[in-house]
Amino acid sequence: xxxxxxxxxxxxxxxxxxxxxxxxxxxxxxxxxxxxxxxxxxxxxxxxxxxxxxxxxxxxxxxxxxxxxxxxxxxxxxxxxxxxxxxxxxxxxxxxxxxxxxxxxxxxxxxxxxxxxxxxxxxxxxxxxxxxxxxxxxxxxxxxxxxxxxxxxxxxxxxxxxxxxxxxxxxxxxxxxxxxxxxxxxxxxxxxxxxxxxxxxxxxxxxxxxxxxxxxxxxxxxxxxxxxxxxxxxxxxxxxxxxxxxxxxxxxxxxxxxxxxxxxxxxxxxxxxxxxxxxxxxxxxxxxxxxxxxxxxxxxxxxxxxxxxxxxxxxxxxxxxxxxxxxxxxxxxxxxxxxxxxxxxxxxxxxxxxxxxxxxxxxxxxxxxxxxxxxxxxxxxxxxxxxxxxxxxxxxxxxxxxxxxxxxxxxxxxxxxxxxxxxxxxxxxxxxxxxxxxxxxxxxxxxxxxxxxxxxxxxxxxxxxxxxx
Length: 469
Ligand code: SF4
Ligand code: SF4
Prior knowledge:
- This protein is an alpha+beta fold.
- It is 42% helix and 19% strand.
- The longest helix is centred in the middle third of the chain and has 40 residues, at 154-193.
- The chain starts with 38 loop residues before the first helix and ends with a strand.
- One iron/sulfur cluster binds next to helix 11 and helix 12.
């Protein structure tokens, strides 16, 4: 938890309710101003462009005839950057989830809510797309407010109608792309080509997603970040006085006040212009101190830097800094705790990378058929009956062969000309036949090699039963 800062206005009333709630408990609708084109806004615009390009093109990319990226939960098929994962790879998913949770915790401890402002799709789409459409159609915050307050006339109908129509269209586009990540573009295009009656479930899904996205971006907006998102709620227990945050330098800025050439004063650098407040998408005043509603979007940094340039003071009155940095006027310290967390994170990422790299495309499970012991054959031979389940994640069929490894032995398949199905499980049943002289105990360890297209793809250890000696 953040310690009380030395900057204390004595007025903590702003913490009594959320910034988007009025004293009567109603929604306080924000009219957000465009941030000036400062360095952070420029970088965020570039990143947003990259995210949009990635989001809208990724489901269309194909690799070896299948989607490059697909997360098909209903069918349990997952393709991540061309690599196929099956429900059998659940442990990878579990390790991935743990890595992600630890990553989020460590990242937040060091960098505060940077993810929310720069990477989270909610902020990227809201501030990078929907807000821009709103500014384009309805103008500045003052013009938007005027439009809302005026009675319904042709101008209001035209502007409001156009905005909502474009919001719906963009939400429809996002919903379709989102669905393409789940069911692949092939199935999505099938809805367009084939009669709608054959795809009623998917169509309902598209309409449902469209309405959800529209509702979120047209109405819910910052409530997602300030009230709904669980990650946002976690902030208060994750950040501390050493975490980097968008912070107001109260040591430099206070006491705040309007500049005047006529009157002598001992004001700090903050001229109380409130430019940092009107650009804030969550409607807070960062000068009140670190607040849960801040999503770290940096719009207030650019707004204040522009003001500082104009009044001839150094930039950075609002900047990325830790509470301790500001309070003690120190440089950012990479604390021992941060180092330990980062080391833990590197180890987890290493494990995750190893597990993904070493996961086999073809793997087998072999076990003796239950209830069967052994059969004694002529020529002094003994046989055991086995079942094999071979999983092929590749998008190609292979001729398959099994061999006893490390000793003389014969395998007699029950299946004729077995072929490994593409992207699926193949069941095989076979006998292993060994010479009596090799079966020394009741239970003997043997190794079976699985060959696909002549290549050894998996080795399985199992037991071979013989008569009591
Ligand atoms: S933009 Fe800067 S100078 Fe203006 S009110 Fe905010 S902190 Fe003070
Ligand atoms: S306080 Fe600044 S960084 Fe935080 S949400 Fe508002 S504008 Fe963005």
